Description:
Blueprint: H1 7-13, E1 17-22, E2 26-32, E3 38-45, E4 49-51, E5 54-56, H2 59-81, E6 91-95, E7 101-103, H3 122-132, H4 141-150, E8 161-163, H5 165-174, E9 178-180, H6 181-184, E10 190-191, E11 196-197, H7 199-208, H8 218-221, E12 224-226, H9 237-243, E13 259-260, H10 261-268, E14 276-281, E15 285-290, E16 303-306, E17 312-318, H11 323-338, H12 345-355, E18 367-369, E19 386-388, H13 397-422, E20 429-433, H14 443-451, E21 455-458, H15 464-474, H16 483-491, E22 497-500, H17 504-519, H18 521-530
Parallel strand pairs: 1-6, 6-13, 9-12, 14-20, 20-21
Antiparallel strand pairs: 1-2, 2-3, 4-5, 7-8, 10-11, 14-15, 15-17, 16-17, 18-19, 21-22
Helix pairs in contact: 3-4, 10-15, 11-12, 12-13, 13-14, 13-17, 14-17
Domain Carbohydrate kinase FGGY C-terminal: 277-474
InterPro entries: ATPase_NBD, FGGY_C, FGGY_Carb_Kinase, FGGY_N
Keywords: Carbohydrate metabolism, Kinase, Transferase, Xylose metabolism
Amino acid sequence: MDHDTTASEAIVNGHTALGIEFGSTRIKAVLIGPDQQPLATGGHDWKAKFEDNVWTYDLDAVWAGVQAAYADLAANVEQAHGLPLERVGALGVSAMMHGYMAFNAEGELMVPFRTWQNTMTSEAAGELTQLFQHNIPQRWSIAHLYQAILRGEEHVADIDFLATLAAYVHWRLSGERLLGIGDASGMFPIDVATGTYDTAMLAQFDELVAERGYPWKLEAILPKVLKAGEQAGSLTEEGARLLDPSGTLQAGAPLAPAEGDAGTGMVATNSVARRTANVSAGTSIFAMVVLEGPLKRLHEEIDLVTTPAGDLVAMAHCNNGTIDLSAWVNLFGEVGKALCAQFDTKQLFETLYRSALEAAPDGGGMLAYNYLAGEHVTGLEAGRPLFVRTPSSEFTLANFMRTNLFASLGALRVGMDVLLRDEGVQLDSMFAHGGLFKTKGVAQGFLAAAMNTPVSVGEVAGEGGAWGMALLAGFLQADGASLTDWLATEVFADAEIETAEPVKADVDGFDQFMERYRNGLVIEKTAVEAL
């Protein structure tokens, strides 16, 4: 793409790339131009439902949500540039990783979408981990499939296509059952040498379930795996109408391989090179560490996945991110409104977050758990949000906020200790993105303290995932460059990055908090049993 093209020319001529991401609470759309920077954005809020003990989203909500996000984007394009959005040069879809969507030969979803939030597959995950000698988290598609088999669910015999949310949306837009390697690595283990599913493990699984007589082999019902830069079909007429029922958007644009939100976060923070890491904090919180080689041994706290380019990644994934923290902030907001105070949401968050900078380094001797859901990293099948203090705790607003901010990083620290301390993994850089880091100088510094590693935040820290997917769509035109080199030279060469170094007092304070955190897990386990 011509970097001298104006925004209007890029929109008219389709010298653009569109990224769409289905997050846990928001569907985002970002249109970028030849300079890889956003021309316009759009969005739509949505949320999961908890029905029959399953966290799920309706398919109608998927399409209503993406149409609303796209319409918002198109309206913003017209408002900002005075042009209708009739075509895009390339596009790609990203979504929350893992989960279980099982379709029959007629393309019908046979059971409700089981999202990554569900912790219902411990038996299957445990058996498969031992069989493969490869950690299989409860969230992974293969764990959900095998658990359904163990439960004797009738629909399993009729599975024609097993998908993640990103794979499903890509299929409907393009007619192709294809998936990016990063998201595919959350369905079934990947052999990084071949760039596709591990054939030995596929054979082990087929043998494991052979006596059940299913009419399919596992590889046949999984999406084909592609790497970043490979074209994954084109937008069909039906797909164009699914995105834009108005009929304005033209079909024909090439699609990038669909990816998971972890992969797009890596791209959006320029963290796809070896010895780099990124932390994404939203409904869940996870760290992606690009490895130089395999780990020394099996760790059930660590997922092994890949970058969108196919390099091995250690993923420390925690189900519970910032929702409980936001609930406390909103509670204080209700108090403010009851007192007729005048403030907006941004001011509320910034004021409360910044108060934590005045706290005792360890949070004043208090303890919190943000566990709305189960947390496999610490061995919890279910969660109960808790705040605990002793009579001698320093119960101030500043300490309260620091304790809850620390709690949002607690489970992540448990997982990262496995990599940094037990495995001796080396990091050159760590980037952070997500809503937790929108207030400058607070959570970024606390993460640096938690990991005792410098942490950088860039300009797109708050809304990076959809932009990361747009970049992967733009990478289709990279003419053979590696993803690492292309990002370094074409996207991030002049990026403004702010880096926070770990402060010793905060590092020591977080270590003290973590000692309480580990010792107090018995309280959390008792709460789950009692409530």
